[in-house]
Amino acid sequence: MPSANMKETIKAVAIELFAEKGYFATSISDIARGSGIQKASIYYHYPSKEELLFHILDTTMTDLIAYIQRNLTGVGDTETRMRVAVRSHVRFHLERQKENFIANAEMRGLTEDHYRDIVAERDAYERIFQSLIREGAAAGVFADGDVKILSYAILTICTAGAAWFRPDGRLSIDAIAAIYEDFILSGLKRGAYRIGAGFSPPLGFSAHGDR
Amino acid sequence: MPSANMKETIKAVAIELFAEKGYFATSISDIARGSGIQKASIYYHYPSKEELLFHILDTTMTDLIAYIQRNLTGVGDTETRMRVAVRSHVRFHLERQKENFIANAEMRGLTEDHYRDIVAERDAYERIFQSLIREGAAAGVFADGDVKILSYAILTICTAGAAWFRPDGRLSIDAIAAIYEDFILSGLKRGAYRIGAGFSPPLGFSAHGDR
DNA sequence: GTCTATAGAGTGATAGAC
DNA sequence: GTCTATCACTCTATAGAC
């Protein structure tokens, strides 16, 4: 993957390797080899391995937020806005699968300050969904429910797609997005289905086995 | 955390550290220090760091499958079976949070053979949910939908809970399980809500930004 | 079953030539 | 902007005493 712009080449190689082997299991030597340069040359472009990771996560989060905001611009009612938000979330995570997979798996590689930066961006993104859930519940379109827990449920369904999705697989991104969109909207809707006290028989066993 | 049984102490310390810092970021020295012995003594109990990881993941998966099977024994109709399955899944993942978090995050630390073993166990577990979805659809209780995608959606909602759940937090395990149970059953149900072609406006922008 | 000591390899990062 | 050479350190794992 040679490029006129070595800084971008290094980033692209790092995304491949971090997604494949993980951040800690990937060495600067690995990234240098993939980029066609010596490992010392990496440090001309990035001051440290951690800064390279942060750069990947930061640009991914910035692009994610910009993408959903552009898609939501001018969209009217709450239900359609939620549909657009879900579809936007799925498309971004499957089209930029590796970066998003890294963003979910490798936060522990960040320094404390950088960790806080990324968490702040992630929180801002989550609040977009939480506002939509609240609006929908206030308008009587969605069932009442715990807004944070529901937002985590919605986001992780799609985020997890970045872990198993295969671009050459059975289903297209749009097909997967359509399935998630319907599943999530049905789950949120105030429908014939009772929401609330959640009946099920008590579970008779401990998760820790017979002790 | 001293114990009469050093092998179990080492395992318990490793679960704490792998969950907190990650498998690759945790050294044998760290585990030894936490266990109150020298690092060489670890190798009397486990032949390698990778075997220790495998032991944790293997016992977790075995217990997970045994737990859901015991909870499902004698439960009648498909809808109730799905409710029990979801609740069982949530409870296990939140009660044994750290082990499950490791099981999801650290599969890449395994050798090829051990990786295959764990994937086989995970697949067997997923098939339990896929069978329930198929049964429900055949009986007309659940909407038709892609069985694999839906099973991944259901399982990841709860699995992700192991990443953010705090035992001393706002909601109890049972409260979270009830929310997920209702959300998932509503999502699966053939209800007033249309399932299928998934309308939403096309997204006008590329996930890769303006290029 | 735990210890001390160490082998052998790899790590992130830096110095300084070109 | 990339190179060679190297520093200082950490890592997993083993040998052999007790």
Largest interface: A-B, 67 and 67 residues
- Class of secondary structure makeup of chain A: mainly alpha
Structure annotation, total helices of chain A = 9
Q: Which runs of chain A of at least 5 residues are low in confidence (pLDDT < 50)? A: none
- Overall average pLDDT of chain A: 92
The CATH H-level superfamily of the largest domain in chain A is: Tetracycline Repressor, domain 2
Beginning-to-end CA distance, first to last residue of chain A: 55 Å
Q: What overall form of chain A do the CA principal axes indicate? A: globular
Q: What is the subunit arrangement here?
A: homodimer
The CATH class designation of the largest domain in chain A is Mainly Alpha
Helix/strand order of chain A, N-terminal first: HHHHHHHHH
**And the CATH topology of the largest domain in chain A?**
Tetracycline Repressor, domain 2
Q: Report the sheet-strand fraction of chain A.
A: under 5%
The profile of the biggest β sheet of chain A is: none
Describe this structure in words.
- The structure is a homodimer of 211-residue chains.
- With 211 residues, chain A is mainly alpha-helical.
- The first copy, chain A, folds into 2 domains: 1-46, Homeodomain-like (Arc Repressor Mutant, subunit A), CATH 1.10.10.60; 49-211, Tetracycline Repressor, domain 2, CATH 1.10.357.10.
- Chain A contains 9 helices and no strands.
- Chain A starts with 5 loop residues before the first helix and ends in a 23-residue tail after the last helix.
- The model of chain A has no long low-confidence stretch (mean pLDDT 92).
- Chains A and B meet through helix 4, helix 5, helix 8 and helix 9 of A and helix 4, helix 5, helix 8 and helix 9 of B.
- Chain A binds a DNA duplex (18 and 18 nucleotides) through residues 6, 27-29, 37-41, 43-45, 47-49.
